[in-house]
Amino acid sequence: MKLRLTAALGLGAALMLTACAANEGQTAETTPTSAVSDGATTGAAPLKGTLNGMGASSVSVAQENWIAQFQTANPDVTVLYSPDGSGAGRDAFMGGGADFAGSDRAFTSEENVAGAFKSCAPDSTALDLPVYISPIAVVFHVDGVESLNLTPAVLASIFKGDITNWSDPLITALNPDATLPDLAITAVHRSDDSGTTDNFTTYLSNAAGEVWDAEPDGAWPYQKGEAAKGTSGVISAVKDGVGTIGYADASQAGEATKASIGVEGAFEQPTAEAAAAAVEASPIAEGRAEHDLALELDSKASGYPIVLVSYALACTDYKDDAKADLVKAYLNYIASEEGQKVAADGPGAAPLSEALRGQVLAAIDSIQ
Amino acid sequence: MTADTVTDPPGAPGALRRTSRQIGDVVFKGFSTGSGITILVLLAAVATFLVGMSIPALTADAADLPFGDFWAYVAPYAFGTVWAAALAMLFAVPLSVGIALFLTHYAPKRVRQIFGYIIDLLAAVPSVVFGLWGINVLAPLMRPLFVWLNQYLGWIPFFAGPVSGTGRTILTAAVVLAVMVLPIITAMCREVFTQTPRLHEEAALALGATRWEMIRQAVLPFGMPGIVSGCMLGLGRALGETMAVAMVLSPAAVINVHLLTSSNPNTIAANIALAFPEAYQLGVNQLIATGLVLFVITLAVNMTARWVVARRKEFSGAN
Amino acid sequence: MNPLTAGRLPRFTEPALLVVCLVVTTAALSVLNAGNPGVIIIVGALLFLLVSFALATSVEGVRHAKDRLAAHVVTGFFLIALAPLVSLAWGTVSAGLARMDVKFFTYSMRNVIGEGGGAVHAIWGTLIITGMATLISVPIGLMTAIYLVEYGARHRLASAIRFFVDVMTGIPSIVAGLFAYTLFSLFFGPGTKVGIAGAVALSVLMIPTVVRSTEEMLRLVPNELREASYALGVPKWRTIVKVVLPTSLAGIITGVVLSIARIIGETAPLLVTAGMNQSLNTNPFDSPMATLPVFVYYQYVTPGIPQDPYHARAWAGALTLILIVMLLNLVGRLISWKFAPKPGR
């Protein structure tokens, strides 16, 4: 028995030594110069090291695509992005646990002060760089109903729990062509604290303030309605339920039927172009440092009004210069035309407008 | 304990052998005592951490707390935790004991082996998978049953409407929890039931007892401490289960006993998982403080259960 | 009349009765227009229990009727519990088999988008972290149980340990995760996510389970065995190692395997402590480490587009986890079968 145990241990050790993944370590042999060096503007030396990112789950698909492309181009670099949530990302970034963060909201002016960030130089502040724009779709599942028009006020009443039946006159008035059944509405919201909810409730309170009397927040403010975990949880609750309606990042909505939102007469489907138009109309917040690009979303502008803007958060000045080079290279890639195209092709995000992209690139260039 | 009184068997010859024996005993006893003390230290560390992180939330002014007054915040979740676990145990305990009895005393040998094995394996299914199964398979299946219950038994407060449109209610969550703890309790019960002295069983049967009488008089009393232990393990998991509940339940911060509606009291653990990623500063302290409450609840439930079913020492061989 | 079968119900009675009860229930509920298949089975089964009990009481007497009732209830419980367990097992196997290919066990997720990719990094992570947790927990747990049963008796320390082990079983897994996370953040800087932190978190969950089950099993060892050993002049520690432990070994190993099974699927604590990594990392002291449950979680909760390959990987990961435990279980059984003294049963 002892012999057998030793043999087993030996076998385990041998396996341990051979622990490897077939898809790793091969690309390292290709010379980095021949690879597409997307953002490596810093010089001839190939980039090396590990970049730790954390934050919003809304950009996880885009990050996954960006990382794969970036790592292929720079085989000695490992970029980690753990989609734990915007708050976790901001916290880790402040505490020095992350080199960059993804967040569905920018730092507030009070948060963004010199010295608040552990991995930055002592007098450094943070940069809020909008890198990902995506519409939030309102999805629903009512048998026999293929299209649905909703105004902000009606949408707010449904999610607040004031309108409880699909045959409510307020809904039928907006949808004269649809045959809406006499069926209870189950409004599904996110059960976890999320950036999507934050953006959605911000929209409702801006566009339908007379109905939506709660403060915009990442946590759902009312105790009515159905709740589900994560974007995929909401989508499956809506798809599997009866008479359900919910909201989710449009890229994840899949085949679920999406409602058209807007003021009467101008209902829009959630598309990348419509979302881009809405962001285009939004000014950059005033009273911030030169390269701090927090956007003030205009929820009443034309285009599809419910938009999620996700930011990359970085230091203006990193403690570690090598880190700064890595971050610059990676963010440069994200904001490059190719990076934005990757995000548009994969998760279906709206590409940044040329003007905004120029500002973002200039901001990245200022990182030290 | 009788064994303790026989520390040194009489008539051990030779002083030398005696000391080497004593050294062995001392070392062995030292190691085992040390392990026990390690556990105490570990627990003290966990407790220090929990309490230390909770104090800011417990002492802060309600206005400063991101989730509002602490006790008002935690009350619905505390209720939900106990309520969901109680429902789960209501389903799981009789079923587990039944399965264990079936596997040890009723089933043919082949069935016994195969299913004993399957049940052991199911203890390893990650909670995520239970969550997925709960959302995708169980909830849609439960919905028609919920509608039926509401239609015919709606006058009982438990089954009051309006019925959830998705079936993701606390009853579904409790069923998922029950399925999760079932293998744990069953495995423990099965183990003690097979340990029942064959002589006791045969004596009962020889006296003309039916199989059920034999089980009641020989197997169950003997296995009682094991059953309680298994239940405590299961209850611990049911109270603390995070991911499955977070994924299956449609939560709200309410206290009610409706089993079929969309507004269900959430559990503390699931709420931590849902709110933690976006929490910051005092919010983190507040969530960890709810973790402390969960800890206290589990402890209280555990102690009560121990007290109610006082250990039946006479059946334990070592005492 | 055959005297041996007199006063007993004929064999075919019960199956026939069951069919009759189900038919009657179906008919009755259909008339009432409440024919839900689940409800029919439940009501039909209850009716069967009632009728068969009444019938058996009248023919065989109350004692035998009770015996039959118990057998029916126990079998019924087994069948009821089987439904979800089999549905779950079947679901995992059928959905998981799609990706149980060579690639799944040789590729990591580095630079993988959509189709392809594997979980070799997560498998190694799970093996390493669970292995380390077991290495920490089993010696501590086993020795503590020995102390409690063999040495502690009614000492104050023993009752304190017993009490606190009870307390520890109540630690919610997420809290154990937060504890380990805070501990490592304290010593190695905030946001530290490494494999060993995951192992510590899992140990906090595993130790009490090991102590509990081992203690229970040690207590089942008859005192006669211990006394016989002492009478032969065997010192106490050798008695424990040579008599008590081997006698209860099968149970102890079952307990250990069960507790490994319990922690190997833990998601929440590993999410917080060990984090996620798309690449293979076999060093538990540096960089985040992927584990199977976390892999499954992320593949399912934050899928790319299209979602199907991500979900297929998630199920394959779950199936792999079950297979690992199956293997462990087999090894455990083999060991206990090898070591355990052969009792006369």
Automatic annotation (TrEMBL), chain A:
Keywords (A to Z) from UniProt:
Phosphate transport, Signal, Transport
- Alphabetized NCBIfam families for the sequence: 3a0107s03
> Can you quote a single GO CC term?
ATP-binding cassette (ABC) transporter complex
Protein's name according to its UniProt entry: Phosphate-binding protein
Origin, by domain of life? Bacteria
**Can you tell me which family this protein belongs to?**
Belongs to the PstS family.
Gene Ontology BP, a term: phosphate ion transmembrane transport
TrEMBL record, chain B:
A GO cellular component term found in this entry reads: plasma membrane
Q: Which InterPro entries match?
A: MetI-like, MetI-like_sf, Phosphate_PstC, Phosphate_Transport_Permease
Which Gene3D superfamilies does this one have?
MetI-like (1.10.3720.10)
GO MF terms, alphabetically ordered = phosphate transmembrane transporter activity
Q: Which residues form the ABC transmembrane type-1 domain?
A: 78-305
Q: Give the keywords, sorted.
A: Cell membrane, Membrane, Phosphate transport, Transmembrane, Transmembrane helix, Transport
> What membrane topology is given?
Multi-pass membrane protein
**Which SUPFAM superfamilies has this protein been placed in?**
MetI-like (SSF161098)
Q: Which GO terms describe its biological process?
A: phosphate ion transport
- Where in the cell? Cell membrane
The answer, when asked if Cell membrane is one of the entry's keywords, is: yes
**What Pfam families does the database record attribute to this sequence?**
BPD_transp_1
Q: Which NCBIfam families match?
A: phosphate_pstC
- Function of the molecule: Part of the binding-protein-dependent transport system for phosphate; probably responsible for the translocation of the substrate across the membrane.
| UniProt similarity note | Belongs to the binding-protein-dependent transport system permease family. CysTW subfamily.
Q: What is this protein called?
A: Phosphate transport system permease protein
Q: Which organism is it from?
A: Tessaracoccus antarcticus
Give the classification, highest ranks: Bacteria, Bacillati, Actinomycetota, Actinomycetes, Propionibacteriales
